[in-house]
Specification:
Elements: E1 16-20, E2 24-29, H1 35-52, E3 58-63, H2 71-78, E4 104-109, E5 112-115, E6 131-136, E7 139-144, H3 150-164, E8 173-178, H4 184-187
Parallel strand pairs: 2-3, 7-8
Antiparallel strand pairs: 1-2, 4-5, 4-6, 6-7
Pfam family, one: Gelsolin
GO molecular function: actin filament binding
Keywords: Repeat
């Protein structure tokens, strides 16, 4: 899962997209996305609902082909300037981004990032009851352990935003990662983390 601009050009037929608004969370299902991907997206939406909306928020599922004749689809497309043509499929995890600082893992404690002292990043460093930030190039990953408290998860997101808006930092992006739903690109930052078929 990675964060992309709220622009029509970000959408494609091959992926799932989640649009989080103040009153409603939209799940856009690309026509070529799999049932497994759609199921995982629903779990992520439930996590967002519990974490950022205190469990109280409407959820709408938008099919790729739905246009203005559906009320919720019409609402969704208004955020993108109206219905329009989207691409077949593109990858939002671009390995060709300009390089920045070398990878550094932080354990977020009481909303503050504390560097993890290690010479080798391994998946064993990520504890399920904690949250971590991983600075890698111009990307800031926020890893949210399933057992971490709501307060810790909110603190980690805030800490990432503070890093992102540091005036001394080059233009970067924040990518939120939930334990159990790590992308192949995130796993590749760690030694010995095997990639499954779904990561290809």
């Amino acid at each position: 899962m990675c964060q992309v601009p709220v622009e029509k050009s970000s959408l494609n037929h091959g992926d799932i997209f989640i649009l989080d608004t103040q009153s409603k969370i939209y799940q856009f299902n690309g026509s070529d996305s799999s049932i497994q991907e759609r199921g995982k997206a629903m779990e992520v939406i439930q996590h967002i609902k519990d974490l950022y909306h205190e469990g109280s928020c409407n959820i709408a599922t938008i099919a790729d082909a739905e246009v203005a004749d559906d009320a919720e689809a019409s609402e969704f497309w208004e955020y993108f300037g109206g219905f329009g043509t989207i691409s077949a499929q593109t990858s939002h995890e671009d390995n060709s981004m300009e390089e920045g600082p070398s990878a550094q893992l932080y354990n977020v404690q009481q909303g503050k990032p504390v560097p993890v002292d290690t010479e080798n990043l391994t998946m064993d460093l990520l504890e399920t009851n904690k949250c971590y930030l991983l600075e890698s190039g111009l990307e800031i990953y926020v890893w949210l352990g399933k057992g971490a408290s709501i307060t810790d998860k909110q603190g980690a997101s805030k800490a990432a935003e503070e890093l992102l808006y540091d005036p001394k930092r080059k233009k970067s992006r924040v990518i939120r990662v939930i334990e159990g739903y790590e992308t192949g690109l995130f796993k590749s930052k760690f030694t010995g983390w095997a990639l499954g078929e779904e990561d290809d």
